[in-house]
Write a structure and sequence with these properties.
heterodimer; A: mainly alpha; 2 domains; 71% helix; 4% strand; B: alpha/beta; Rossmann fold; four-stranded antiparallel β-sheet; 11 helices
Chain lengths: 251, 281
């Protein structure tokens, strides 16, 4: 998972788009997926997601992330399966039954999470975090302090993942075996949250001090030299995503 | 004994971190691995403890391939001290931290409790202190103590003195040296040549994933070509003795030109004065 949500340089259509458009479009796609109740619609969005990823030469990363999201969504899907007694009954349960509607609900959960997660991942892969933050400040007039918090959070994800990897390595060297079932692994990993938390607090503190001494508080909307103009392509893509949202509501 | 047999390793497929390394480290040796950042030293340490599996070749600990040993089995024999103690420390009190390895290895019995008590006394720790509130040097000592409390026969140290002041550094190295004198094998990655000259008996120099020199510490440190290729700066005494010999032909071949420690140098200066060799007055 090295490189998780880290910018991958490129010259694809998505790379060239305005960061605000990309962020807005991915949010519209997320809303569309959550509002849609059609398996076909979600499957179509998923296909478009993968086509876009392939066009940006990010298919391997996207498939890797899809695997992680699918594993997570599987847990939610099982809950949906057991708690949605709809359609023709297939298996009886003490509190209801599993029916054809339950299976549909299960598929909906998996497809919905996959289809809405990929656009957001792609946005981060094709846009520098600094550009997202600067564009939010310049174009959307978001106070820099908030934009910085957002981008710092994203930027720290790979750092913390690297830290966690190092901590697990150190514990493995002491004889901790991180193999076996999920419950065992979770039980072993729980105490490791302490060093991770300590390291996070220390890093955050250092980053805050470093930002302050470099004039963080003096920064205003005018401080950034880079401009983020909108091109016709941005307008077309935005319109397409609004259409997608409408389709999601209707379907 | 640790054996590296034609070992290659990589974190990413296209960029090998270690290439075809072969090396045997006998019981009781004190070996330092030196070289520039990215030379493959830490990778060698990870290979020795099976934290990283070789892509080619084999690493054997006491004749057994590390791939055949579970982490808990290997941890009994090979202790690993990391550069950053905060990645290692994970318990609420010093005592729990020292007991941690015994607990995860399923060895927390009366003997383990005795070893923990002895370690607390030896290092002068407060057993109920919170590890994260200790200063950096004490945290590093605690991390070292929590490794050696289990009495591993081999100790791997990956830049153990980074961020420590001189006294803390001496404290850590004295503990390590004591263990080595009692028979433990020590493998250490370090950039401090003075420290290496004081403690290590054997030096392995690495560059771009390859071992370019392996031998007695001062033989390597006196090899100008190896030092240049490995980006090594010899310790001051060695550098001064080499400079004296180079600038005063009368001193070439004398004990002064071979002095590795301050005591040897002072003795050699007295000798040179008495014999009238060189231009020393």
């Amino acid at each position: 998972m090295r490189g998780f949500l880290e910018y991958v340089p490129g010259s694809s259509l998505l790379h060239r788009m305005n960061p605000v458009t990309k962020l807005a479009c991915s949010l519209l796609a997320i809303f569309a997926c959550f509002l849609a109740n059609s398996l076909v619609f979600l499957a179509a969005v998923l296909v478009v997601d993968y086509v876009l990823a392939a066009r940006c030469k990010l298919l391997p990363q996207t498939l890797g992330l899809s695997k992680a999201v699918a594993s997570f969504s599987l847990m939610l899907a099982i809950i949906a399966l057991l708690t949605t007694p709809e359609g023709t009954p297939i298996v009886g349960l003490p509190w209801g039954y599993i029916g054809t509607g339950s299976l549909r609900a299960m598929a909906l959960v998996v497809l919905r999470l996959l289809a809405c997660a990929i656009p957001l991942f792609l946005t981060f892969y094709v846009t520098k975090v600094n550009d997202i933050s600067n564009a939010l400040v310049k174009v959307c007039h978001v106070p820099y302090r908030y934009a910085f918090v957002f981008t710092s959070t994203v930027r720290f994800i790979p750092v913390f993942m690297n830290d966690m990897e190092g901590i697990m390595e150190a514990q493995t060297a002491r004889g901790v075996e991180f193999d076996g079932g999920l419950i065992k692994r979770l039980r072993l990993m729980a105490p490791l949250c302490v060093p991770l938390l300590v390291s996070s607090v220390r890093k955050t503190n250092s980053a805050a001090i470093a930002a302050e001494v470099r004039g963080f508080s003096l920064r205003t909307r005018e401080s950034g030299h880079k401009r983020y103009p909108f091109a016709p392509l941005d307008a077309i893509t935005f319109a397409a995503c609004v259409a997608l949202l409408v389709a999601g509501v209707v379907l | 004994m640790i054996e590296f047999q034609n070992v290659s390793a990589a974190y990413e497929v296209e960029t090998p971190a270690v290439r075809n390394a072969s090396l045997t480290i006998a019981d009781g040796e004190f070996v330092a691995f030196v070289g520039s950042n990215g030379a493959g030293k830490s990778t060698m340490m990870r290979l020795a403890n099976n934290l990283l599996a070789p892509t080619e070749g084999c690493v054997l600990v006491d004749g057994v391939p590390t791939s055949e040993l579970r982490a808990s089995q290997l941890a009994r024999h090979v202790g690993f001290l990391f550069q950053n103690p905060d990645r290692q420390i994970c318990c609420d009190t010093v005592r729990e931290e020292l007991e941690f390895a015994f607990r995860v290895q399923g060895r927390l019995d009366a003997r383990a409790a005795k070893l923990v008590d002895e370690t607390i006394e030896r290092f002068g720790f407060d057993p109920d202190a919170e590890p994260y509130l200790l200063n950096r040097g004490t945290r590093q000592l605690l991390a070292l103590a929590s490794v050696i409390v289990g009495e591993p026969t081999t100790l791997i140290l990956d830049e153990p003195t980074t961020g420590l002041d001189y006294l803390e550094c001496c404290e850590v190295m004295d503990v390590v040296s004591g263990l080595n004198q009692r028979g433990a094998t020590v493998l250490m990655v370090c950039h401090d040549m003075e420290l290496i000259a004081d403690y290590a008996k054997r030096l392995v120099v690495m560059t771009a994933g390859e071992i370019i020199a392996d031998g007695p510490t001062f033989d390597i440190l006196r090899d100008v070509d190896v030092c240049e290729r490995g980006n090594l700066e010899p310790p001051h005494v060695v550098a001064i003795s080499q400079r004296l010999a180079a600038e005063d032909s009368g001193l070439a071949g004398t004990p002064l030109a071979r002095a590795n420690t301050l005591d040897q140098m002072l003795e050699a200066i007295d000798g040179a004065r008495q014999t009238g060799k060189g231009n020393l007055r």
